[in-house]
Amino acid sequence: MTPILWSFRRCPFAMRARLALHGAQITVDHREILLRDKPAEMLAASPKGTVPVLQTRDGVIDESLDVMHWALAQNDPEGWLEFSADDAALIATNDGPFKQALDRTKYANRYPDADPDQARATAAALLHPLNDRLSHHPALTGPQDTMIDAALFPFVRQFAMIDRAWFDAQPWPHLATWLNRHLDSARFAAIMVKHPLYRAAEHGKPA
Length: 207
Known about the structure:
Elements: E1 4-7, H1 12-23, E2 29-32, H2 40-45, E3 53-56, E4 59-61, H3 64-74, H4 85-106, H5 116-134, H6 147-162, H7 164-168, H8 173-183, H9 186-191
Parallel strand pairs: 1-2
Antiparallel strand pairs: 1-3, 3-4
Helix pairs in contact: 1-3, 1-6, 4-5, 4-6, 5-8
């Protein structure tokens, strides 16, 4: 069967999954949704109701990193899995303290007890080490992109887009170059193509 990918275009977790699927050259049945109107079929596959959700012949994968690992285990033509355990710690920092600070900066109204300026400062402090890494080589772990770059890029992008003028004024030129390289890539353009919203009736099922 062709794997089914439930996705939301602007979700950074879904973006990283789509990047890995594209890098692994895996064709999927892309089903675009609105997070406020989740299809019953998606919820039946993954009741937790978050994206991405990948349905394969072997089962359902509903964590973005698991989707990435699954895709690259099938096919890894660019060597994206060639990184160390120390490098993998970058993802833990991104998905933990950085994502927490990002949310409190971008969605300040959801966190009335948080100071958005302090949250932005916290997020920025976590980006400086990435700039330091990128001062030595063009990708986060060396000369070539790996899964680490694909996993972090959507979140750095989301943070930058909160206030791009402010982001570009910060002392992290190597990080800005890395971000722009990914933003301008053919791969990013490919995974950001707009898909029509999924309609059950259009897939041969009752609406």
